[in-house]
Amino acid sequence: MGYNIGLDIGTGSVGWAALTDEGKLARAKGKNLIGVRLFDSAQSAAQRRSYRTTRRRLSRRKWRLRLLENIFSDEMGMIDENFFARLKYSYVHPKDEVNNAHYYGGYLFQTQQETHDFHEKFQTIYHLRLKLMIEDCKFDLREIYLAMHHIVKYRGHFLNSQSKMTIGDSYNPRDFQQAIQNYAEAKGLIWSLNDAQEMTDVLVGQAGFGLSKKAKAERLLSAFSFDTKEDKKAIQAILAGIVGNTTDFTKIFNRERSGDELKKWKLKLDSEAFDEQSQAIVDELDDDEMELFNAIRQAFDGFTLMDLLGDQTSISAAMVKRYQQHHDDLKMVKEITKKQGLSHQDFSKIYTAFLKDDTDKGMKALLDKADLADDVLVEIQQRIESHDFLPKQRTKANSVIPYQLHLAELEKIIENQGKYYPFLLDTFTNKAGETINKLVELVKFRVPYYVGPMVTAADVEKAGGDATNHWVKRNEGYEKSPVTPWNFDQVFNRDQAAQDFIDRLTGTDTYLIGEPTLPKNSLKYQLFTVLNELNNVKINGHKIDEKTKHVLIQDLFKSKKTVSEKAIKDYYLSQGMGEIQIVGLADKTKFNSNLSSYIDLSKTFDAEFMENPANQELLENIIQIQTVFEDVKIAERELQKLALPDEQVQQLAKTHYTGWGNLSDKLLSTPIIQEGSQKVSILNKLQTTSKNFMSIITDNKFGVQQWIQEQNTAETADSIQDRIDELTTAPANKRGIKQAFNVLFDIQKAMGEEPNRVYLEFAKETQNSVRTNSRYNRLKDLYKSKTLSDDVKALKEELESQKSSLQSERIGDRLYLYFLQQGKDMYTGQPINIDKLSTDYDIDHIIPQAYTKDDSIDNRVLVSRPENARKSDSATYTTEVQQSAGGLWKSLKNAGFISQKKYDRLTKGGDYSKGQKTGFIARQLVETRQIIKNVASLIESEFSQTKAVAIRSEITADMRRLVAIKKHREINSFHHAFDALLITAAGQYMQARYPDRDGANVYNEFDYYTNTYLKELRQSSSSSQVRRLKPFGFVVGTMAKGNENWSEDDTQYLRHVMNFKNILTTRRNDKDNGALNKETIYAVDPKAKLIGTNKKRQDVSLYGGYIYPYSAYMTLVRANGKNLLVKVTISAAEKIKSGQIELSEYVQQRPEVKKFEKILINKLAIGQLVNNDGNLIYLTSYEFYHNAKQLWLPTEEADLISQLNKDSSDEDLIKGFDILTSPAILKRFPFYELDLKKLVNIRDKFIAVENKFDILMVILKALQLDAAQQKPVKMIDKKSADWKDYRQRGGIKLSDTSEIIYQSTTGIFEKRVKISNLL
């Protein structure tokens, strides 16, 4: 029996359905084949990468410190053999019985007196470091070690490439001045920093003393020149960041964001998580913006460092000064406290609060009450404002100290003490033949980031670990050698690691699965973007010919990083070609694309070298290195491999590019397109024609799509999971695709054969919209024009008052069109009454929806009577309408209120041509999103007898209207499965009706359908309903009218299925790996259930610990006479897996297990489905369980619930309450029976409350599948007991009659295990 499958693929669900060739649900294993697979959306790798980076950083710090100890060990053993042991076990508590043998009395040195004398002599580690630098005498070796240990441990950042540095040259404000100038030139802005020295004076000098951060920023604004209000806001945002306040990068880089997206673009530069938090911003910046972004960060770091170190000559000297200042301030404050009679406890609270946050008002209040001279009080207040009162040595500001300053102190210590301890002078010879001090190298050396973890994949796999992020290889003969900075290049193959890193970093082609993309700044890729943009442009109404394109590229794009509209016009004038009109630019004033890499390389190579085809591969290799390697030294090393002169290498290494393109060299350069007797590439075609990229790849006569399909379906040894990983799409999409394939495999297994066809659509997930601000800002810019008439300018005030309404779902689009049309009806030119937008006016589609489902602003107008605007048999407008409204249309176009595209649509004369109608047909039948095409290719490569067909989402939306059943997302997740059902039904209909999608019968049916629709629309113009008419696209429109391939019975069958009360629903269980526990370490707390932080600190009564260890899985045991769930932590699971402990032994150690009998089931996954005495539940942990049954309501009731909002009437809200607490719901959910009855009993109180809608939303949320506990009762009556806690402390106890339900991906296959059979 033939069958077809429909898939609705989302980032958190896959809806699926299988229909027979007769259009009925397929059945297998006694079940209807329709269902939904649910799963948690995959998160991006950013957070995991952050954790991995931190672990690696700490691991390498320990590695350096072990090497330092090794250097000192022999000499230290002769002086104090237990010194390192005392340091290692300095954490041991005197009451720690387990580690009592390692308790050394808390002494740093051998005796208490020695330890006391040391601390008296050196109050802080910086006092010791300073003494070692300035005093030329022999120090105790232990003191030298402690100082060097501190330097090696906290060696500073490596952001500055200088090999040597002093405090005086740590930052030059003129660098920031130059960065502002470079950015302004690149973007065509009038920005400049007039006086770099003024920034230094205000930020770290006397000019800014006593000023708040905000006041400093305001004062510095006068040091800048700028043009517009937007420029001023950008400069203010930059200054806000540099002084230490929040930086709004949307204002700096002219981005429009709102809600959660806006929050991501507002950051503080001193945030410890800045690098991770800023990744979302960095990903969207071009190279010029990245240069400014980095300059702002460097300026903040630089000025912070200057302020931190002041006029001192070393870090240690500056820190000792801060210590002394703190000491003097504290002494004064204590005297004030004593005079005011404050207790020690009260003072401690004030002091501690101030140290945590120096804006705390407690200290200020204490000082205000003190009997201080006015000038003294003012000075203290100014120091508090400047964050210079009671200064601390350890602050976030320390992160801005570069390693070179720490290194300078180390070298001075070595110089002073090397004469007494010669081993401090030990050296090694590096690969370049240089002799370097080992201790110096310990501070200077960084494991190249392209090496990754210093453990090979083979070693990781041998230990049973995950080697995914390991790629470095050891050289032959060094497989077991310990790694040090001194033998690194002997142990590891650095060159191979670099190449492997490049391969891992490179993106994959949007069209060719798994094919590596070109760098975004590749010469070839930039040429592609320029040609693609040029081919969209018209000059004096004509596309640009091949010769002109070549001239423009040679004369303008290869000399200017930004080619503006003015530059093109000036060029034409200079060539004697007169004035020109340019249309088609994506940006109003300039081209977005450029040949910046060509210009950059031209500074190193002459024109002849640049234009020589033989050098292009070398130039592309240079750009790849400049993209991959940010570190100058590493870039130099890689560039040297290209056999370039040293001078060129040094010059080229200073340039760093970011980002990868979307396309591969293979796609752009492979000869694909037949031209006469030869084939040419896409890049060739862009150069020789005026067609853009999308036109070339979608035009069937060029055969590009067929070639892409062949490449993507070619046989490969890679698994389907590997090929999905190679797709260019977000991790969340990849998880959805993987689950979709699991669904296909499950259905194929149940049916015993492959499907004939798989119809697929990608679900449109809810996005955080930034449209509201974008629309408002666009309108605001349009209404700034000084050329507008007075009556139009008067709309500006109205725009301000309507800003919030632009986001209204009910009226937002109409309001936007109202302002775009300058408040006038687009067909009559008459004023529109804004107060009656929703009642007297409608949105009409310029090209009717029967022709195309184009719902963009370019295809919509706001009018009063749309049906009278067209001829009875045409989609275009009557001559009368075009004549009466033509003047308005033209003025709107000239003022930028409507696009050229919209204007052309409005003014089109005559009917659409056959070619245009064929295009409309293609857009309704053919899905254009490449990710769906790629998934279709994967399906066809995996299933040899199956054809994969992508269905447009507009068809699914039309099918929803055909069956007249709305989506009820708020009720349950069935809508995913029903969309899959509709996708399949529409796909089967199209296959039967239009087997040849390019055939004449398709065109004739389209022509007949659209003409009939227009005539009916005209004939029914007197009806008030016509203004509300929304036509189907022609596919579903022909279904609605009925024919031999579709009848009303078919529609009724779909309605029947979509009213099923139950469909197959499965959830993906959580995996058993991840973080071991919540990260926060808590102090000792007898009430808290803590676990030890590591093997050494197991006694939580002495050391504190973690509060919550995460579960890997659960085990079901017979204990205490019950069937008890026991938690198996991730750390325990690893020990059990490695054989360090038996599961039964671990279980018996658990405090909740009293009388252990036996293990019933070794491993139950988090989220396991269970039938517990008739209640379907998910075991979300060993103590918590959730409902595992979907809510269902009749269509009419579901419609009412879905339409409720805060403005709904009390009558509807009470109806909603009665629906959700009805006897039918109680019968469906025995799980919630007692809880729902509590609500029924307080119905009268619900009627009386104000927040009815909020309460209903909580009830609705509580009734969802896998919902956590909600508390709706307290929202109605605070005195009543709320819903039960879905928790059984000490472990869930399952009854003997319970069943453990194991399901396949779809739920078609399941296995039930009765607990009674295990006893």
From TrEMBL:
<comment type="similarity">
    <text>Belongs to the CRISPR-associated protein Cas9 family. Subtype II-A subfamily.</text>
</comment>
<dbReference type="Pfam" id="PF13395">
    <property type="entry name" value="HNH_4"/>
</dbReference>
<keyword id="KW-0051">Antiviral defense</keyword>
<keyword id="KW-0464">Manganese</keyword>
<comment type="function">
    <text>CRISPR (clustered regularly interspaced short palindromic repeat) is an adaptive immune system that provides protection against mobile genetic elements (viruses, transposable elements and conjugative plasmids). CRISPR clusters contain spacers, sequences complementary to antecedent mobile elements, and target invading nucleic acids. CRISPR clusters are transcribed and processed into CRISPR RNA (crRNA). In type II CRISPR systems correct processing of pre-crRNA requires a trans-encoded small RNA (tracrRNA), endogenous ribonuclease 3 (rnc) and this protein.</text>
</comment>
<dbReference type="InterPro" id="IPR036397">
    <property type="entry name" value="RNaseH_sf"/>
</dbReference>
<feature type="domain" description="HNH Cas9-type">
    <location>
        <begin position="772"/>
        <end position="925"/>
    </location>
</feature>
<keyword id="KW-0255">Endonuclease</keyword>
<feature type="binding site">
    <location>
        <position position="8"/>
    </location>
    <ligand>
        <name>Mg(2+) 1</name>
    </ligand>
</feature>
<dbReference type="InterPro" id="IPR032240">
    <property type="entry name" value="Cas9_REC"/>
</dbReference>
<keyword id="KW-0378">Hydrolase</keyword>
<feature type="binding site">
    <location>
        <position position="976"/>
    </location>
    <ligand>
        <name>Mg(2+) 2</name>
    </ligand>
</feature>
<dbReference type="Pfam" id="PF22702">
    <property type="entry name" value="Cas9_RuvC"/>
</dbReference>
<dbReference type="Pfam" id="PF16595">
    <property type="entry name" value="Cas9_PI"/>
</dbReference>
<feature type="binding site">
    <location>
        <position position="8"/>
    </location>
    <ligand>
        <name>Mg(2+) 2</name>
    </ligand>
</feature>
<dbReference type="InterPro" id="IPR055228">
    <property type="entry name" value="Cas9_RuvC"/>
</dbReference>
<dbReference type="InterPro" id="IPR028629">
    <property type="entry name" value="Cas9"/>
</dbReference>
<dbReference type="InterPro" id="IPR032237">
    <property type="entry name" value="Cas9_PI"/>
</dbReference>
<protein>
    <recommendedName>
        <fullName>CRISPR-associated endonuclease Cas9</fullName>
        <ecNumber>3.1.-.-</ecNumber>
    </recommendedName>
</protein>
<keyword id="KW-0460">Magnesium</keyword>
<feature type="active site" description="For RuvC-like nuclease domain">
    <location>
        <position position="8"/>
    </location>
</feature>
<feature type="active site" description="Proton acceptor for HNH nuclease domain">
    <location>
        <position position="845"/>
    </location>
</feature>
<dbReference type="Pfam" id="PF16592">
    <property type="entry name" value="Cas9_REC"/>
</dbReference>
<dbReference type="Pfam" id="PF16593">
    <property type="entry name" value="Cas9-BH"/>
</dbReference>
<comment type="subunit">
    <text>Monomer. Binds crRNA and tracrRNA.</text>
</comment>
<keyword id="KW-0540">Nuclease</keyword>
<feature type="binding site">
    <location>
        <position position="765"/>
    </location>
    <ligand>
        <name>Mg(2+) 2</name>
    </ligand>
</feature>
<feature type="binding site">
    <location>
        <position position="765"/>
    </location>
    <ligand>
        <name>Mg(2+) 1</name>
    </ligand>
</feature>
<dbReference type="InterPro" id="IPR033114">
    <property type="entry name" value="HNH_CAS9"/>
</dbReference>
<keyword id="KW-0238">DNA-binding</keyword>
<dbReference type="InterPro" id="IPR003615">
    <property type="entry name" value="HNH_nuc"/>
</dbReference>
<keyword id="KW-0479">Metal-binding</keyword>
<dbReference type="InterPro" id="IPR032239">
    <property type="entry name" value="Cas9-BH"/>
</dbReference>
<feature type="binding site">
    <location>
        <position position="761"/>
    </location>
    <ligand>
        <name>Mg(2+) 1</name>
    </ligand>
</feature>
<keyword id="KW-0694">RNA-binding</keyword>
<comment type="similarity">
    <text>Belongs to the CRISPR-associated Cas9 family.</text>
</comment>
